[in-house]
Amino acid sequence: MAHQPRDDETPLLAKPDAAALATAPAARRNKYPFFCAVLASMTSVLTGYNVAVMSGAQIFMAEDLGISDAQVEVLLGVINIYSLAGGVDLRPPQPAPHHRARQRLLPRRPARHGAGGRVRRAHGGPLRRRRRFRIFINTGVMLSYVSNLAFSGLPAHLSWRVMFAAGVVPTVFLAAGVLTMPESPRWLAMKGRVAEAKAVLDRTSDTLAEAEQRLLEIEAVVSSGGRSGGGAWKEVATKAGVRRVLAIVLTLQFFQQSSGIDSVVLYGPRVLAMAGVTSNTLLLSLNVLFGVAKAGSILIAMALADRVGRRPLLLASTGGMAASLLVLGSLLAAFAGARDDAAVAAASVAAVVAFVVAFSVGLGPLAWVYSSEILPLRLRGQGAGLGTAMNRVMSGVVTMTFISLYQAITMAGAFYLYAAVAAASFVFVYACLPETRGRSLEDMEELFHTK
């Protein structure tokens, strides 16, 4: 039900003059949202660490506990399934504990600020901040690989336990830091606490004009009932443009995970062992190399996304993924079972690094960015929730079937399959995704017919 302001509530602000916003001088960047973003992004570090630490820990768990391959698949994939409970929330917000509302500050921020049809302050908009902090989850992955290597010299019954225990350290800092974060302005506005919402926006915006514009956007969504679940699903049922956008979001997330990235992230040592690498220390060292390549490539994506555009990066990414997976599959097919063949091992490592880099400069981060840009603001919560669900489900499916898959069709066959999926994603990007760089929310609604 649309929010009806009471007589004693703060009235809606008058709409700021568009010309004034467009010609206003650039303000000094507000560092407080940066602090909040870094703090919130620590959850991504934990996610990356907790998911990827099993890559090396499984070696020592098998030695210590004698777990089977089927149990390894379950252990590696189950975190993606039960994370759905916390990662997907399609319900209209209810009165929530203070810490829960705080967590919503950054993800719920409006994606763009438009004036005269162009993106205002594109060099520092919230979408760019979100892209910047996609590197945190990859930092968590890299740290897990470092942990695997650092504690691999301990006895087997201790090594994997210490690898998991190390993940407690950032959790302590996150628990303390979250107490300093403000309430979500959108949550406050939905509860009728407009003055408090305005105070938070004043604190987290670069200028007062920006804070007023963001409050207007929030009030427009709240007053129209756009956050209600029933209204969102009615639009999906009745508007072809909305269905198209939702289909694009779900398909992007499907391809991001079904192309096999988690098979490399979580089973890298197994893949390289099949390519002839026999030393556990070397396997775990190469895993660190993969982590560095994955995290470093996000920086390239950050630098290029607003210069060359989303579509060229996605095409280069999916094409590079297909080619590198095809090479890796061919190496495994031609030299399966080769032991201590340095040339085969080096070529396989190069193919894996190429795949990781290709994924991380395009499809990895831009699937999230593109989805956020094309979803209408009033449907962003529901659309993002469904996209997250697709991503986690497909990650769980790939992770929990990889060993069974390569045992059934060989390791080479598994990577040929992933190469075919990556090739299909290239076709999807080429045929279905228009360029979104530099477009305002209004442009997006015209482009996808979601008004």
Automatic annotation (TrEMBL):
Residues 194-221 form a coiled coil. The chain crosses the membrane at residues 135-154, 160-181, 281-301, 313-336, 342-368, 415-433. It is found in: Membrane. Residues 97-112 have a biased composition (Basic residues). One of its GO terms (molecular function) is transmembrane transporter activity. Residues 92-123 are annotated as: Disordered. It is a multi-pass membrane protein. Belongs to the major facilitator superfamily. Sugar transporter (TC 2.A.1.1) family. This is Polyol transporter 5-like. The lineage of its organism: Eukaryota, Viridiplantae, Streptophyta, Embryophyta, Tracheophyta.
